[in-house]
Amino acid sequence: MPFQNVSTPETYFPSSLHEEARGRIFYAISYDKGGVLFTGEVGMGKTTVGKVVINRLADKDIKVGLIANPTLEMNDFLREILFRFGIKTPPMSKFDLIHKIHDLLTLNFRSGKKTVLLIDEAHLITDKTILEEIRLLLNFQYNDKFLMTLILIGQPELRKIIRAIPPLEQRLAIKFHLKHLPFTDTKNYVFYRLKQAGAKDPIFTTDALKLIHQYTHGVPRRINQLCDLSLLVGFSEKKYCVDSKIVEKVIADAGKHGCENG
């Protein structure tokens, strides 16, 4: 199934935009830049980029924690940070949890290890006290070096949320917004996913690809959905290639069911 909407490093397509995002995150980690703000619309592959970063850091002397659901109360959020770094804690006061996090970061630093915390879906954090606590975590420094690299990943509204908290925004040295794929990358993305699934031929005609890009606006998740259904229709009609007529039929059916544009 070449167009499964499953976010894995194995299905990661290194478009120029995704690679620029990954490169900036690696730069922030390598040179202890403190904070990264990484945003993009739904379905653009932000989480996949984050997983690729984690996967490629696995063999390095770097401790990585990923929080996938940040909608927690303050103390639970702090405990979740520790849990993601392998430390289980009993119920503690906020004071004790913060000190335990500081001790963890200091221990890693003195052991020559970098600490990286990724917070996915960060736009879901509506409690400003938690965002303030995130800012304070970036105050943990040693000889002007950040003890942790913090990566906030979220939808475009996260930028507005962060702008409303200037002290936090100023600590996010790297900011990157993932734009839609241009046609060339859309075409290469489709061919890449087909090849990963074992296809020998392109299958999709150029006209079909142009229509796919036009309809999906270069959003990977929408591309997956449209290509998956187009393959299904092409198979049911016993076609060797997916042409623009097949794609038009899928788009028309989607419109009838109120699913236009994904």
Description:
The protein is an alpha/beta fold. The chain folds into two domains: 9-178, P-loop containing nucleotide triphosphate hydrolases (Rossmann fold, 3-Layer(aba) Sandwich), CATH 3.40.50; 183-256, Helicase, Ruva Protein, domain 3. It has eleven helices and seven strands. The protein has a five-stranded parallel beta sheet, sandwiched between helices. A two-stranded antiparallel sheet has the order 4-5. A hairpin with a 2-residue loop joins strand 4 (141-142) and strand 5. The longest helix has 17 residues, at 94-110. The protein is elongated. The two termini are 19 Å apart. 37% of the residues are buried. The model has no long low-confidence stretch (mean pLDDT 92).
Which descriptors would you attach to this protein?
262 residues, alpha/beta, Rossmann fold, Helicase, Ruva Protein, domain 3, 2 domains, five-stranded parallel β-sheet, two-stranded antiparallel ribbon, elongated
Entry summary:
With 262 residues, the chain is of the alpha/beta class. It has helices spanning 16-30, 46-57, 74-84, 94-110, 128-137, 157-163, 166-169, 183-196, 206-216, 220-236, 244-256; strands at 35-40, 62-67, 114-119, 141-142, 145-146, 149-154, 174-178. It folds into 2 domains: 9-178, Rossmann fold, CATH 3.40.50; 183-256, Orthogonal Bundle (Helicase, Ruva Protein, domain 3).
